[in-house]
Design goal:
The protein is built from one helix and six strands, in the order αββββββ. By secondary structure, the protein is α+β, with helices and mostly antiparallel strands. The chain has one domain. It is rod-shaped and about 95 Å long.
Length: 153
């Protein structure tokens, strides 16, 4: 055996520390980007759910020339309620099933025979408190949901 010829079968501590630092930097960039992507996808799904509900309301308007109205004393028309995380809609919107019922509560905020305003209100995670609304005039707003406030994504 020669002196000075040392065979190494592993990593040095410096190589290991450099690898850990690189992985840490990449993770520090990737996780916030992924989190933002998940939040945006939930908001977009809620927007799609509102559009689907508005199509149900518009279909009713085309058939009867009035939007379904909701009152405190009547739930026979269209009323969406959320109880224990489950969203159900009766009568005019019975065919409508939201895809984001675990993260949003859907409701008809105002409804008259000629107008409506529907809302998806976030109730979990990063979308908690976010309000996504849609009116019969196609006015689309996101509120209380920084940094996504303003018009729809």
């Amino acid at each position: 055996m020669r002196v000075g010829a040392i065979k190494s079968n592993g990593f040095t501590l410096v190589e290991l520390l450099i690898t850990i630092a690189i992985v840490g930097i990449l993770a520090g960039i990737a996780f916030p980007a992924y989190d933002s992507y998940v939040t945006k996808s939930k908001l977009k799904s809620a927007q799609a759910d509102l559009v689907a509900l508005s199509l149900v309301l518009e279909n009713r308007f085309q058939r009867q020339l009035v939007y379904p109205t909701t009152t405190a004393s009547s739930t026979a028309e269209t009323k969406c309620v959320s109880a224990t995380g489950t969203t159900t809609c009766t009568s005019a919107a019975s065919a409508w099933q939201p895809s984001q019922s675990d993260s949003f509560t859907y409701k008809i905020v105002t409804a008259t025979t000629t107008t409506y305003k529907i809302e998806a209100l976030g109730n979990a995670g990063k979308v908690n408190g976010c309000s996504v609304t849609l009116t019969q005039d196609n006015v689309r707003v996101i509120a209380s949901c920084s940094p996504y406030n303003g018009s729809w994504l």
